[in-house]
Structures are given as structure tokens and as C-alpha cells.
Design a protein that fits this description.
heterodimer, A: alpha/beta, Aconitase, domain 3, five-stranded parallel beta sheet, 15 helices, B: alpha/beta, four-stranded antiparallel beta sheet, 16% strand, globular
Chain lengths: 469, 204
């Protein structure tokens, strides 16, 4: 009998279906549920109202990230509402017997940084979290996606979720990346081409020689931003680079179990001849260092290009969106961004706050100093990353450059905690969203790679990082 | 647990002709600190609705004295970005029962359906027509019929059908709850756990 060719996505999806009735959503089993303080309280309240327990506590991990300060993390949180939300998570975790990596715990950090770091994230798994950037974990060859709080409650109650099977999309990227081009530029380039709705309804697999040559950190950056093109999630088939990264981490199988797991994981990559619903081909040589000019991640361009004009757009809805973006950003169509003065540089977020990001930033920054007017935040993704930065002496390079070293958290990525960019100020950011008000009311965001942000951190202006390499 | 059910919505509508409206606009992150589902309507579209001092911005459509209603009409790709269900809670809490657009982001759509806020996806041409009608006449009545899966403007004699998955349709029309359904499958879930192969998620 001929074997049916299946994609990576289909193999994992099929092996997690508990029940599939016709015309009903699938009941999909969830291997790991990651929770944090913002999207869990109403779900815990739901369990209480129903008088039921959390179904599988051993498959649930909690951390504090969105709402925590990144300064004075050993002191009580100043802001009352934030403190209450964080305290509620602690109380809920105690009551429902969930392990919590709270403030002060050596494993605390941004939920999408600590999952892979601790080895919770592994190939072949289904992973969910009440946060859209859960797509990050797909870099290991897992089905990982963000969910709403009602769905968080579903998973807490039954370790399963009601889901319709999304379509599949393959984005194949081949070729060698040019000087100064990173995986962040690849994903910003893709989103600028297909828009923030280009992946909606689909689960994306990234493949091709360019992807194969990327480190796990770089792969996570790409998968992280899958949601910014509307995709349900992003994933990359596991390979030797994946296994090498995972080996020895806390929640990864050891000894004989490792060998068995490895044999299974090697069966996961998409079979020859398997069909995707949609395919997109990208030539790595077409990608250059990228920057966004507008107020969604699709409004991006090569750093040497000029901002488009209203005339380039099709309909009134699009023109309204563009006008609103330009007014908000205080920018004009037809102009270049190179040389644009910035006030803040944010080096953090679940997109780019892993150790490799800081190593790359340090290479550009070493021995240089930020200009007087500029504020530069270095916000590592986890306590482990903070420790590693210190171990490698990178913190000294950053402090000598005049940067501020902070503790782990989501920080200025989302304008929820104490770290915000003031109204009207320009910030070049390694995060994932440039929406209006995202980094604080009135804050103006340019999304870029860590090294492009590093170049701006030493010049105070949007700069072409290739001139600093 | 029974939720409230929706069968038909008859209302005037509020037009918001902008594409890619993200959930950070619907409810900015700084308002996500509450631990209940209520009260988010106060801050729906906060930074478009109010200036930094808290005064209503007169040009924003929700502040327009003529435009009221249970239906929001919005541009392509509504609800993109963050997965925050607070966006659906905020729209619902403000009083909206349906959002009409030519395209919805996936997570927003499922969050909306889980809160009996109906995402009505129409063709781009129909959406354009709706904007024209409502911009001209703020009193235009729109009917969304969940059973028949139609959206119509009787005064203008226009109508279109929309998709809603059959499971969610039953839930919304009858106020059924997803978690009750999942809990009824507990035995199947436990059997699945027992029979599984190649699960290395907890081996360490």
C-alpha cells in the first residue's frame, strides 16, 4: 500500500485529535498549556464558578511577564491594578496547584522565551497560551498557537480545545542572506509583501535552505511574527540544529527516552509530495535590512527605500488607514527613513530577547557610546538570559555604551507595565508590533532587527547597519 | 452553563471605515489589568475616542451624536494583532451585538463567537455598499438573521448571506456552552491519554 504524504502540520494535528465529529470542530488534545497573569484570571474564575479542578496540572506552566516592572523586581509592584493581577495569578496557582515561575524565581521570564529555554517546547507537541505570539514555539516543529481566555478555560477544564483545522501554507526561502540581513528582516519582508492578513486562516510552515541554516533563536523570531501576517501559527521542521539546542534542557527527555524521542521527532518533517493549500517562494537575496514606517507590521520597507504615497493605494479604507498612520507617526509619504532621529531604542520582547540577539547587538555596540538624547533599554527575555548576559560580560559593553540594563519581562513591547515610550517620541524597537499606542499612548514605533536597532542606538538615528559591520 | 442566545439583530449601525483595525486599538493593553470580564466597554477604542485629557474627540464616529446602534461596520481585516479576548468583551460590553466586515482575523473571530458577538463576514462590494448607505442615512435599519445567515437592509432592498460554522450557530442560537460540551467528553479524553504513543512532552 502506498504511504500517504503528509505535512509536518498534518502529522501533529492528526495525532492529537481526541474526537472529530462531522460538521463539528475537532477536539484537539493540548500537550502544554502556558499561562500568564493577563489572560488567565477570568478563566480561573470560570473553573471556580463551575466548581471544577484544573484537569491536568502537570501540563500547565505559569509565569509573570506582561504586567511586571523590569526595575526593582524584588520590591512590591507600585501600580495597584498590576500588583493585584499578579497577586491573583499567584493565588490561583496555589489554589489550582499550578507550578508558577513568578517574580524572583530563577525560571521567570516572557512565556515564549522560557518555554524553549527550559525544554518545555519540543517537536511534535501541541502548545497553547493566551497570547498571540505563542506561534514562537512552532520553531521546534510543534503546533503552537495563541488563544482567547474562553479557550484558556477550555484547556484548563479538559486539556483539550475546540478547533477547526486551518489550511496549510508553505513559505520556502532559499539562498544566502546578505550582510546585515537577519531572520527578523526575513519575516518583516514577508509581511510587507503579503500584508497583515496574508496568512489568515492558515498554519504556515517555513522551509528552504535559508531556514535550514538559521539558529534556533533566529527561527523563533520568524515563527514568533507569523501572527503578524494573520497566520494561525508558524512552524519549522525539526533537524540537527533543533536537537542540538534542546539536548540537556530541564524538561527534555534524557537517556533512553531521548533516543526514542529523537527517532520519533525525525519522522515529523513533511513527506515528499505532500500538498499545501498555498505556497510562497522567497529568494533570500531579495531581502535587505528592513524597517517599518507605519502602524502595522505590514507597513515595512527596505531600509534604503522611501515610504510609499497615498497614490500607491487601492481603496478608501486603505487610504484612511495610511493617512491615519502617517499622521500618527508624524511622517510623510515619499520620504526616506535613513537619518530619521529617534528618542528611544527598545532591545527586548518575545521576538528578540534571547542570548544570541544580545551577542549580535554587542558586536555592533562594543566600544561605542549612545548619543546624549537617546534612551536605550536592554530588557532580556528571562532571568536565565540576564544571567547569561552577565556571564559573557555583555552587560559591561551595554553599560559602557550608556544603555539601561533591566530585569526580565514584556516591558515596553506593549505599554501595559511601567515601561512606556512617551507620546510623540520615536522608538526603534526589536519587538513585533507598531500599532498606534502599542508602546504607550502616542508612542511612535519603528520595528527592526536587533542589529539595525543597535546601529540606531549608537547613532541616535535610523541607520544602515551594514555600514557598521 | 447557559449563555444568552442570539437569533436576530435589528438595529442601526456605526460605520468605521478603516482597514486592519487591531485589538490594541479596540482595547489598549493598559486597560487589560482587570480580572473580570465586565466594564471594558468604557475604554473601547479609548485612544481614538478620547484625547489624553479624557475629552471625547468629536471626529471619532462613536462620539457622533447621530450614530448609535448594536452593529459596528468596519474595514477589512478587523481584529488583527493580539489575542486578547478583552477586545470582544469591550465591544460586547459597549453594546455591540455584531461586527460586519469583509475580513476578520482568526483569533478575534473565535473570541467574538465565544462571547455571542457575531462576526458577519460580507463581500467587499457589499461592505462598500453598506458604508455608502449608512454614511448617507444614519437611521438605516440593518437586519442580521442568524438562523437564515443573512444580512439585509430592508429600506434599500439589499441582502447577502454570510457563513457561520454550524456548531457555533447552534451554540449562539441556543446559548450553549463549549466547556459543557468538552466536559461531556471527559471519558474520551482520558481514553485518548491512555492510548497515546510518542508523547514525550512530560518525559524529563
Amino acid at each position: 500500500m502506498k504511504k500517504i504524504s503528509r505535512t509536518l502540520f498534518e502529522k501533529i494535528w492528526n495525532s492529537h485529535i481526541v474526537v472529530q465529529k462531522e460538521n463539528y470542530p475537532a477536539i484537539l488534545y493540548i500537550d502544554a498549556h502556558l499561562i500568564h497573569e493577563v489572560t488567565s484570571p477570568q478563566a480561573f474564575a470560570g473553573l471556580k464558578k463551575r466548581e471544577i479542578k484544573l484537569f491536568r496540572t502537570d501540563r500547565t506552566w505559569a509565569t509573570m511577564d506582561h504586567n511586571v516592572p523590569t526595575k526593582d523586581q524584588d520590591k512590591p509592584i507600585q501600580e495597584e491594578m498590576s500588583r493585584k493581577q499578579v497577586e491573583m495569578l499567584k493565588k490561583n496557582c496555589e489554589e489550582f496547584d499550578v507550578r508558577l515561575y513568578g517574580l524572583g524565581h530563577p525560571n521567570q521570564g516572557i512565556v515564549h522565551i522560557i518555554g524553549p529555554e527550559l525544554g518545555i517546547t519540543k517537536p511534535g507537541m501541541t502548545i497553547v497560551c493566551g497570547d498571540s505570539h505563542t506561534s514562537t514555539h512552532g520553531a521546534f516543529g510543534a503546533i503552537a498557537f495563541g488563544i482567547g481566555t474562553s479557550e484558556v478555560e477550555q484547556v484548563m477544564a479538559s486539556q483539550s480545545i475546540l478547533q477547526y483545522k486551518p489550511k496549510t501554507m508553505n513559505i520556502r526561502i532559499n539562498g544566502k542572506l546578505g550582510k546585515g540581513v537577519t531572520s527578523k528582516d526575513i519575516i518583516l519582508y514577508i509581511i510587507s509583501k503579503i500584508s497583515t492578513a496574508g496568512g489568515t486562516g492558515h498554519f504556515v510552515e517555513y522551509s528552504g535552505s535559508t531556514i535550514r541554516n538559521l539558529s534556533m533563536e533566529a527561527r523563533m523570531t520568524i515563527c514568533n511574527m507569523s501572527i503578524e501576517m494573520g497566520a494561525r501559527g508558524g512552524m519549522i521542521a525539526p533537524d540537527e540544529i533543533t536537537f542540538e539546542y534542546m539536548k540537556g534542557r530541564s524538561f527534555v527527555p534524557k537517556g533512553k527516552d531521548w533516543e526514542k524521542a529523537l527517532a520519533y521527532w525525525k519522522t515529523l518533517p513533511t513527506d515528499k509530495g505532500a500538498i499545501y493549500d498555498k505556497e510562497l517562494f522567497i529568494d533570500a537575496e531579495d531581502v535587505e535590512p528592513m524597517i517599518t514606517y507605519g502602524t502595522n507590521p505590514g507597513m515595512g520597507m527596505k531600509i534604503t527605500e522611501t515610504i510609499p504615497t497615498e497614490n500607491d493605494l487601492g481603496n478608501e479604507s486603505q487610504r484612511n488607514n495610511f493617512r491615519s498612520a502617517m499622521e500618527y507617526m508624524g511622517l510623510q509619504g515619499g520620504k526616506q527613513l535613513l537619518g530619521q532621529k529617534v528618542d528611544y531604542v527598545f532591545l527586548g520582547s518575545c521576538t528578540n530577547s534571547r542570548i544570541e540577539d544580545y551577542r549580535n547587538i554587542a558586536k555592533i555596540v562594543k566600544g561605542k557610546k549612545k548619543p546624549e538624547w537617546l534612551t536605550v533599554f536592554v530588557v532580556p527575555g528571562s532571568v536565565h538570559v540576564v544571567k547569561q548576559i552577565e556571564k559573557e560580560g555583555l552587560d559591561k559593553i551595554f553599560i559602557d555604551a550608556g544603555f539601561e540594563m533591566r530585569g526580565a519581562g514584556c516591558s515596553a513591547c506593549l505599554g501595559m507595565n511601567e515601561d512606556k515610550i512617551p507620546a510623540g517620541k520615536y522608538c526603534i524597537s526589536t519587538s513585533n508590533r507598531n500599532f498606534q499606542g502599542r508602546q504607550g499612548p502616542g508612542a511612535r514605533t519603528f520595528l527592526a532587527s536587533p542589529i539595525t536597532a543597535a546601529a540606531a542606538a549608537i547613532t541616535g538615528r535610523i541607520s544602515d547597519v551594514r555600514e557598521f559591520m | 452553563m447557559k449563555k444568552h442566545s442570539i437569533k436576530k439583530i435589528i438595529s442601526t449601525a456605526i460605520p468605521l471605515d478603516m482597514e486592519n483595525i487591531d485589538t490594541d486599538q479596540i482595547i489598549p493593553a493598559r486597560f487589560l489589568k482587570a480580572t473580570t470580564r465586565e466594564g471594558f466597554g468604557l475604554n473601547v477604542f479609548r485612544d481614538w475616542r478620547y484625547d489624553p485629557e479624557g475629552n471625547p474627540k468629536p471626529h471619532f464616529i462613536l462620539n457622533h451624536p447621530n450614530y448609535k446602534g448594536d452593529i459596528l461596520i468596519a474595514g477589512h481585516n478587523f481584529g488583527c494583532g493580539s489575542s486578547r479576548e478583552h477586545a470582544a468583551w469591550a465591544l460586547s460590553d459597549y453594546g455591540f451585538k455584531a461586527v460586519v466586515s469583509s475580513f476578520f482575523a482568526d483569533i478575534f473571530k473565535s473570541n467574538a463567537l465565544n462571547n455571542s458577538l457575531l462576526p458577519v463576514q460580507v463581500t467587499p462590494d457589499f461592505l462598500k455598499l453598506l458604508f455608502e448607505i449608512v454614511n448617507k442615512n444614519h437611521k438605516a435599519k440593518i437586519i442580521v438573521d442568524v438562523e437564515k445567515q443573512t444580512i439585509s437592509v430592508p429600506g434599500e432592498k439589499i441582502s447577502e448571506t454570510f457563513e457561520i460554522n454550524s456548531y457555533k450557530k447552534i451554540c449562539i442560537m441556543n446559548g450553549y456552552d463549549d466547556i459543557d460540551y468538552l466536559l461531556s467528553l471527559k471519558l474520551e479524553i482520558e481514553n485518548f491519554e491512555k492510548k497515546r504513543e510518542n508523547d514525550y512532552s512530560l518525559k524529563s
